[in-house]
Each structure stands twice: as C-alpha cells, then as structure tokens.
Amino acid sequence: MILMQMNGLSKSFGADEILRNIKLEVKDQDRIAIVGRNGAGKSTLLKIMAGEFSHDEGELFQPKDLTIGYLSQHTSLESRKTIWEEMVDVFHELRELERQLRGMEQQMEAAAALSEAESEKLLADYDRLQQRYQQQGGYTYEADIKAVLTGLNFYAEDHDTPISDLSGGQKTRLALGRLLLTKPALLILDEPTNHLDIDTLSWLENYLTGYPGAVVIVSHDRYFLDKTVSIVYEISRHQTKKYHGSYSKFLEQKALDYEQELKEFEKQQTEIKKMEDFIQRNIARASTTKRAQSRRKQLQKIDKLDKPAGDEASANFSFQISRTSGNDVLKIDQLAFGYEDRDELLFSDVKMRATRGERIALVGPNGVGKTTLLKIILGKLQPSEGSVQLGTNVQIGYYDQEQANLSSAKTVLEELWDEHPTVNEKDIRTVLGNFLFSGDDVLKPVASLSGGEKARLALAKLMMQKANLLILDEPTNHLDIDSKEVLEAALMDFPGTIIFVSHDRYFINKITDQVAEMQQNGLTIYLGDYDYYTEKKAEEAEIARLQQAEETIQKADRQKRSHQADKTRQREERKKQRRIAELEETIEDMEAQLAKLEENMADPEVYQDHEKALELTKEASELKQKIDPLMEEWTALQDE
Predict the structure, then answer these.
(1) Using CA atoms, how far apart are residues 26 and 213, in angstroms rounded to an integer?
(2) Which of 474, 587, 591, 631 would give a disulfide with 401, using CB separation of 3.0 to 4.6 Å?
C-alpha cells in the first residue's frame, strides 16, 4: 500500500532553489533513508512530508486518514507534567475506555436492581467495549511505556521526575519516546540519534526494525542507517535518486552507477567525434556528400547524454605533526574524579596506556565521565586521585564538541590568522578553501556559521597546530556524511596518536585499533574495532548467562541435596525419639519390677526364707544388669 507519493515536487525560498522535480514514494513497512550534504534540502523535504511546509510545484498524494509522526532535528519536549504522566497522556483515549469499563463493572455489581433486558444490554455493551479496549492495546500500554522509557535510559525511579527538571538532551529523548508510543502509520525522524549513547542507539535500531509502520529517516549516523534502512534516496543538486539496499550498498551502487554512466558518456562522445570527423572530411566531396549528409542526420537524432556530475566539492585536508613524540605517549594510573558538591565519585580506578601511533576510542554511557577524563588529560580539570603523565615531546591538539575555542566576534579568516599571524593571508585562505570556505565565506562572522561550518573551522584550527596527540571529543557531530569520510581519511593517515570520544560507530570502526570502555569503577580495553568490541561484549554476556544458568542449576542441586539431607535428618530424629520413648517405657517397667522385688525382699517372711531371699536377690541383680545398658543407650541418645 502506498502511503505517500511525490511527483515533480519543487521548493524554493525566495530566489534560492532548494528542491527540484523530486520523485519519492513511501509504502507501508518501508524503511527509507534520505541522505545528502548539509544544506541539500533533507530537512525541508521532511517538513513537506510532515505537512509543516508547502511545496511550490508538483503533486503530493497521501490517504486522508494517514497518521504521521514527525520528530524534527531540534525537538524538545516542554511540559509541566512528570515523565510518566506525559507518556500516559499518549493513551488518553484508552484511559477513557478504561474509565467506562470500570463504570460498567460497578453497574454490574448492582445488577439485581436491573431488569433482565437491561442486564443483557449492559453485558453486551461491556463485552463490545472490552474487545475494543483489548484490540487497541489496553492491557499492554503500560508495559509499552516502560519498555520505551527503559530503552531511552529512563528507569522506574525517574518516572515521577518533572520534565521541567530535565536537561535538553533528556527532553529530546522523551520527545522521541512520546512519538514512538503514538505509533503513526508513517514515522518521520530528522536526526533521531542525537543525544543517544551507543546502548540506546542499539535499542532504537531494534525498535525501528520491528516497527509496524513505515519509517523515513534523515541521519548522518551511517552505522545506524546500515542497521535500519533498505531504501536510500540521495538528494544532490536539488534532485533525488533512489537506491535499493542498505547505506553501504548505496555507496557501492552509486560508485558503480557513476562509473557506468561515465563509460557510456565517453563511448557516445567517441562515436560523436568519429561522425563529426567523417562529416567534415566528406561533406565537400561530390562523391561522398550524400553519405556525409546522412551521417549528419543521424548525429542530429542522437539523444546526447550529459556528462555524469559526480560528487559535489568536498573538503580536502590532512593532519601533519611538527615533531615526533616518544614511544610512551600517555600513562594514567588509579585516576578518580568527583565534584566537590557531590558525595559520590564520578569515576574511579581508571588506568590506561597510550603509545605512539595508537588510536583509542573511549566509549561508555552518557554521564560516565568520558569528556571529563579528556579534560583531565588536557589539564583543564584536576583529578581527585591518581595521576596523568605525558611522554616526551607530546604536543596535544584538542577538538571540543562544543567548539568553545571559537570566538563568535571574529570572522572565519581572523579565527585562523590571529593564531598564526606569521602565515601570509594567501596560505590561510588556501587552508580555509580546503575546508570549503571560499571567496567571501572567509569574511563571515563565526557567530553566523552553521553547526557543520563551525565544525569544519574547528578542524582547520586543529590541523594548523600540527600536534602529535589528538584529543577529539565527538569530532563527527554536526558533520555531514561526506565531511565525515574526509575526516576519516585524514585521521587514518595521521602519523601521531589519537584518543577520541564518539558515538559514531561507523567512524570508530574506521579509525580505532582499540576500544576503551569506561565504567564508573574503571576502564576495560578491547584490542580491536567497534565490531570486535560488540562481539566480545556479546561473548562476555553469553558466558555470564551460562555461568548464571550453571549457578542456578548448582543452587537448585544444593537445595535438593539439602532438602534430602533435611528429610534424612528428620527421619533419623523421629527414629531416635521413638527409640528414646521405647527405652523410657522399658526402663520404667523394669524399675517398677525392681521396686516390687525390693519390696518383697523387705518382707520378714521372705528374707527369713533363705532360698526365697536368694532367688529374689538374683532376679533383682539380673534386672539391674538389664537396666544399666538401657540407661546408657538412653543417655547417649539424649546427648546426640
């Protein structure tokens, strides 16, 4: 089923043409990525799809009852409600049905006051309403809310937190969560991976894979796109081209298409040149003029191919070093950090070594202290415990994700030239040109630059430092995919050492040779790229699961053996008590007999009868001999 179709759609803002002759189709269950350079018109296209912008020309078809959910790039949830109240409000219609059902149940409790016809009608209405409630997810919506909140790193203890108390990133995550819970038929997401850590990204990938509707995504996260989409529309030079497959498949197909189109163009150009040469040589000769005229007609009928445009201009730069560091670049021992106004340490027991040429990716959940660790290495913060030691000849270059080292009041040219006043203006302009600042662009105020432009300017400053240890905090933020690829190529050829924080898993795979996972109580090194890291984490999780299962089996076995031992002990105890009771009864009987004998022996008639007295004395002695071992056994049993 087609949910949306665009034919020949165009959009301009004043004299600036943004989109031209756009053709796009969205079917039920589609997973579509829209890719292109910053400024290509991706967000504009999404806003047209979501109904927030109109289009100038062309046609847009969609069913009247189509439900659309749109998350813009800068969406932030503003509300006076708590997290739970805001999420539950998505299901206000279900909660109204729930209220009606409770009311009917109260009426049914008082059914004695109703007539038979009224009672039957009430039961029928209740059954109908209950089926509707169930079909719309009435028995699962609370579980759905908890699953989405947990996936976005909001746990049970957070549910009563007022939304007004949250950070901007948390509000953005909540806006995404609220949108996911509405489950529109068409979900439109503009940079949904912003403010998400790697675990949350993985959760969102799995969620979108199983999403019941269609999904259209704009994202610069190539790993995320590879995991989620099966159709790619590229916007280039105001137009779209459709590719089938993942993002990586799109790159392969795009390269193959360009190569094929270039070959066809060059082949046609060769044929045209031959025909033109033949015409020029033969048109003036009477014997061959007819053939030349025929060739001219053929040439006029040829549908001439345009030369394939290829990629648009890209940044072009590399990182060099002014001097080589020693082999030991960085040594961190027993490092801990905590803020003075907090009782608990942010992190502790961090140990790390970096040698020349290594590329270390620092990963971990948001808030664990990755950026703080970088600032301690830079000397911007002092640790609570432990030490940081830099090696010989180490020069640090730092890329700040907030671009705090840029001066808003300066122009682009001044930003670079003020730090390198001995370099002539032409060379500074050449450097800026390599980062796509050309002509009058270099005279723009830094304050007026977009996020991507500021990122490129910060990279230009970093390149000019020629440092041998690069400390990078989220270097791919704000960069479009093309700029990321240029940065990757530059860093792959860098002769120094790199320590970086990034949530861009594709970028980590390209750059790193080891992943350092940071936790609150330390740091674990994995010698490989991001995919190796995830494989090892999966192995560790499986080993932990198997160990847990084994421990559960062993515990059950111990409990079983313990239970059997308890039953044995109880059986033996009952047996002992029965024996004690038997002994007591036997001893009591024998002692009664002994008392009777002693009483008879005290009778004058008996003790005067020598034979009789001797007989009774013998019986009493034998009885005592029987009682003694019984008493010993009874005493032993009592002492056990």
Answers:
(1) 11
(2) 474
